[in-house]
Amino acid sequence: MFTTVESLVKEFQTESATTQQLLDTLTDESLNQTQADGYRPLGYIAWHLVHSDRGMLYGTGLKFEAPPAGNEPPKQAATIAEAYRTTMQNIINAVNTQLTDEKLQDVVMMFGRPWTISTALYGYLKHEIHHRGQLTILMRQAGLPVIGAYGPAKEQWAAIGMPAPVM
C-alpha cells in the first residue's frame, strides 16, 4: 500500500498516463465494440474509467469534480478521453491538497469492512487496471492498436528491436 502521498501521486500519474494513451486511441466507431451480445460495449467501459468508483474515492473523503456515474457514455471518443484527463487531474489535485502521509492510514468503511485510505486508493488503481485490460481486448477486436502497460504489446516488439514472442 501507499505510505506517502508522493508515492501515491506518482503511481496515479503512471497508471493514468497508460490509460490515457489507450483512451486517446479510441475512435467514435470503436465505442460500440462488444465482446458478444449482451455485454457492455467498449464505450461504456471507457466511460466507466472516467467516473470509475467515485463512491470508492468519495468513501475516502476526497472531494473532486467528475461526471456523474449515471451519465450515458458520450458518442465521441475524444470527449471520453478529455473527460478522463480532467477527472484524473482533479483526483490528483484532491490527493495532493486533501491528504497527508498520516491521513493515508486513517480507517474508513469500504464495502462493509474497515480499510485504510491507502488500501482504498490502492484498490481504486487495481480497479482501473482491471478495466484497462478489458479495454485492450475490445480495442483489439475493434482493430485498434494497443500499448503494453507492463511490457511490450505484440505490435511494440519491433520498435525495441526484438521479434515478438512466438506462440
TrEMBL record:
Binding sites annotated in the UniProt record for a divalent metal cation: H48, H127, H131
UniProt keyword terms in alphabetical order: Metal-binding
Domain of life: Bacteria
A GO term, aspect molecular function: metal ion binding
Family from the record: Belongs to the DinB family.
Name of the protein in question: Damage-inducible protein DinB
Source organism of the structure: Paenibacillus pectinilyticus
